[in-house]
Amino acid sequence: MTRRRFLQVDVFTARPFLGNPVAVVADADGLDAATMQAIARWTNLSETTFLLPPTTPDADYRVRIFSPRTELPFAGHPSLGSAWAALESGFVAARPRLIQECAAGLLPVTVEGTGADRVLSVLTPSADITDLAASDREALRESLGCDWLDAPAPAIVSLGPRWLVARVPDRRVLSGLAPASDALVRLSQRLRMTGLVAYAVNEGDEPEALAVRAFAPAEGIPEDPVCGSGNAAIGAVVAARRGLSHLLPVWTASQGRELGRDGRVVVRVVDGRVLVGGPCVTVVDGYLSSHESDPSSQGSRST
């Protein structure tokens, strides 16, 4: 049995129990993929990450990212939470800029401030945008249980995860969304996408420019509380198309209110590339006990 440093970090919030939690196993060298996947199933969070030595001198650390069902090349809030945990645990030395190695490549992480006041942002992978085919829009309407789709046209955005991005008319409609899971699973599997990101432009007194929700039932995540890659996918659409260019180059989005996990994501577009960022807070700091020889082990944690 091996004890490894284990942190659970709430991302896109400075207050515990809000934002989006990610579990981070530090010093994960020696764990195989099957054991990592078993730990990710056990934590039952949208993502669990594992900190490893980099394979290139150009990176400060390497991270592997797992949902409860599969390994991901990149995800937004796990990247920020992993960088936060790497700093908190001493896995890397504090500096204004870190380079994260992941399956999507080498991604810069900017660190502003120190200690509990740190704010992190990560440069997300380049996005590929494809309009949703007209033949698939009826399936999307079926998934959403509605007969409208607001401009701009829904699009599939690939930046590691593959999100279907759709704008809805307003915050009230967004809050009322209850996608049919079975229909969305079928659409996700057919289009090989992670799930659906829906957003609305805030009006009136809301301080945030956009409100966002993300649904990924095909990945075992009915709704992601605050989704970094989903917000980055929206950022890629805004940067590439007319209609919301007044938001550029930076805006703040709210997400998670419907789940009681209210968070804030700062989205910035620089030379066509999207950065997502925000504060983090550690809510669990302890140790994970794992049996590397038994990939089915569920592990245990103590704080």
Please describe what this structure looks like:
With 303 residues, the chain is of the alpha+beta class. The protein is 21% helix and 38% strand. The chain has an eight-stranded mixed beta barrel with strand order 1-2-3-4-6-7-8-17. Strand 7 (105-112) and strand 8 (119-123) form a beta hairpin. Helix 3 (134-144) runs antiparallel to helix 5 (181-191).
Distance between the termini: 17 Å
Strand content: 35-45%
Mean pLDDT: 91
Largest sheet: 8 strands, mixed, barrel
Overall number of strands: 18
Number of helices: 6
Helix content: 10-25%
Alpha-carbon Rg, integer: 19 Å
**Principal-axes shape call:** globular
Main-sheet strand order equals 1-2-3-4-6-7-8-17
Uncertain stretches: 293-303
The secondary structure category is alpha+beta
Q: Quaternary status of these chains?
A: single chain
Topology pattern, helix = H, strand = E: EEHEEEHEEEEHEEHHEEEHEEEE
Keywords:
single chain, 303 residues, alpha+beta, 6 helices, disordered C terminus
Which helices and strands, and how do they pair?
Blueprint lengths: L1 E10 L8 E6 L7 H11 L4 E5 L8 E6 L4 E2 L3 H14 L7 E6 L2 E8 L6 E5 L4 E4 L2 H11 L10 E4 L3 E6 L3 H5 L5 H11 L3 E7 L8 E7 L4 E4 L3 H13 L9 E6 L7 E8 L2 E18 L9 E3 L1
Parallel strand pairs: 2-3, 4-6, 11-12, 13-15
Antiparallel strand pairs: 1-2, 1-17, 3-4, 4-5, 6-7, 7-8, 8-17, 9-10, 10-11, 12-13, 13-14, 15-16, 16-17, 17-18
Summarize the structure.
The protein has 303 residues and is of the alpha+beta class. It has helices at 33-43, 76-89, 134-144, 171-175, 181-191, 228-240, and strands spanning 2-11, 20-25, 48-52, 61-66, 71-72, 97-102, 105-112, 119-123, 128-131, 155-158, 162-167, 195-201, 210-216, 221-224, 250-255, 263-270, 273-290, 300-302.
